[in-house]
Amino acid sequence: MSVEVERFPIAGTFRIARGAKTEAVVLVCTIQDGDFAGRGECVPYPRYGETVESVTAQISEMADAIAGGMTREELAERFRAGAARNAVDCALWDLEAKMQGRRVFQLIGQNAPQPLVTTQTISLGTPEEMAREAGRHASRPVLKFKVGMPEGDAERIEAVRRAAPNSQLILDANEGWTEHNLEENLRIATEFGVALIEQPLPAGRDDGLAEVSHTVPICADESLHTRKDLVQLRGRYDAVNIKLDKTGGLTEALLLKAEAERLGFSIMVGCMVGTSLAMAPAILVAQGAQFVDLDGPLLLARDRNPGLLYEGASVHPPEPELWG
C-alpha cells in the first residue's frame, strides 16, 4: 500500500467563514494486489485536527492492519472516522471491484447509478462579489453559497437571490452564526426563499436550534460524522450532510445514510474541495439524495485525467478507469 500527496490549484480563491485556500491538497492511497490496484482519495481537514502528516501516518498504520488481513468492517471498528480511513476504505472497494471484474455499485447491491444534478458553490465575499458570481451561474438549478460572517449576511443572501432569481438556494454558514443573530438570519433566509441552511451554529453549541422555528430546513454538517451522532441531532436538524472524509469512507457513509433516512432526516451528500477521484464513491451514496453537492472538481483550475463528466448541472457516474 502506498500514499501520495497531490496538489491541485483552485480557480481563484475559495473562501468560507473559517478562512481561504488557493489549492486543494489531497492524499491518494493505492492498494496493490498482484496485477490489480485500487485507489481512494481524501482531503486532510484542519477543522477536524487533521494534517497531511497525521493522515499519512494513520494510513501507514492501516497498511500494517490490512497486510494482516483486516477487513473494511474491522478497520471501521479499530480506526477513527476521518480522511485516512476514507482513502483506505475507498481504495479497498475499488480493488475488490477490479479483482472481481465487477462494479462497486454491484458489490453494494445498487442499481446502476444515474447522473445527478449537483450544486454550484459560490465562495464567501462581499455581497457585490457574490452577486456577480451568482449571476454567472444563474442558469444552474441549484446554487450553494457561503455565509457566516458577523456582519453582512442578510445583504449577501439578498444579493445572491436577486442575481439568481430562479435557482434553488442552499446557504452554508460553516458554524459562523451565533445565538444572537440566528433568528434574524433565519427570517432573511425565509424571506428570500432559501431551501436549506447548513450548520448555522458551531458543533457542540447547537442546542439553540431546538428552540427556534425552522422556517427553513437546517442541515447538520460539522455536527455529523457517523451514525453515532444521529440521535443527538434529532430535534435540532432536519437534514444531514454526509461527506466521506467525515464518515471514514463509503462503508460507513452507506450505513449512515440508511439510518438517517430511517430516523426521518433528509439527505445531502457533500464533499471537501477535491478531485473527481474523491467524488466518485460519493456519487453512489448520493443516489436518491434530496441535495447533492459534489462540485469539488468544478472549483479547481484542473481536475485529474480521467475525471468525472460534468455536463451542465449534471455529474455523471465514474467510469472504471477512474474508480469503482
From TrEMBL:
Cofactor, how bound (note): Binds 1 Mg(2+) ion per subunit.
Amino-acid positions noted as binding Mg(2+) in the UniProt annotation, renumbered to this chain: D172, E198, D221
PANTHER family: D-GALACTONATE DEHYDRATASE-RELATED (PTHR48080), ENOLASE SUPERFAMILY MEMBER DDB_G0284701 (PTHR48080:SF3)
Required co-factors: Mg(2+)
Enzyme Commission code: 5.1.1.-
Keywords, ordered alphabetically: Isomerase, Magnesium, Metal-binding
Family: Belongs to the mandelate racemase/muconate lactonizing enzyme family.
Domain Mandelate racemase/muconate lactonizing enzyme C-terminal: 127-219
The protein's name in its UniProt record: Dipeptide epimerase
InterPro entries to which the protein is assigned, alphabetical: DgoD-like, Dipeptide_epimerase, Enolase-like_C_sf, Enolase-like_N, Enolase_C-like, Mandelate_racemase_C, Mandelate_racemase_N_dom
